[in-house]
Amino acid sequence: MRPLEAPARLRDQQVAFAAHLRSPDDNPAPDGIEDRRMAIYRDLFYNSLEGILASNFPVLRGLRGDAPWHALVRDFYREHYCHTPLFPELGREFLRYLETRGQRDGDPPFLLELAHYEWVELALSLEDPDDPPIVPGLSLLEGTPVLSSLAWPLAYRFPVHQIRPDHQPGEAPGEATFLLVVRDRQDEVRFKQIDVLAFQLLQTVASNETGLSGGQLLNTMATNAAAADPEAFVQAGHQLLQQLQQRDVILGALTANPNA
Fold this sequence. Notes:
This is DNA-binding domain-containing protein. The protein is mostly helical. The protein has 9 helices and 5 strands, in the order ααααααββββαααβ. It has helices spanning 8-22, 35-56, 58-64, 66-79, 90-101, 111-126, 196-206, 214-224, 230-246; strands at residues 144-147, 151-156, 177-183, 189-194, 250-254. The strands form 2 sheets. A 3-stranded antiparallel sheet has the order 2-3-4, with helices on both faces. The protein is elongated, with a radius of gyration of 24 Å. The mean pLDDT is 92.
């Protein structure tokens, strides 16, 4: 049975109602509704949205100040059409909006990266693990190392984990910031700063679609890095993989592809 369609008049009222809530200055309220009643809906919808975003992005909220923050939320409310009605996904929708709107006058240069950094904590807390079954006891050098789906290596131009009201860099430093975000067995989301080699190793493991063994991956990295002592490089990389396995970042290994 096909769902019943709303009568055209009701549909028009709903469209006008939504348009007015999004942008009261540009769209009149539907006919026949007192402004006193509409004001209740305007405040309810906006305050609910603003409260969720403020709790998802507390650092960004604190940096912007009242007027710029509310202007940003109003712009999002007016300009962005969400892909989902779920409240936990509003942070992702806000991030999508910032990605598409681009840099505007008055924006700090780190705005998008800071928003992403703050969004990651909620996103990872809601993530459903999707990991393959590990081969017990298989060496990380002989097998294909597996990165946990609850461990995200991230790279930023700005030191987003250090940004606060009294530390707002005007330009990106010469070196990038690398972070590892992990949801542990107690479902706590934790951030740790890592160096560039650890980031590259994790990225290499994550993008290993051909099933190379850990030894093959590390030897390739040693070649690309023009390591003076490739054997020592591989040994250090193996030790790092083992340390990451102890922290549930690397889950273990799968049987490597013999044809890779």
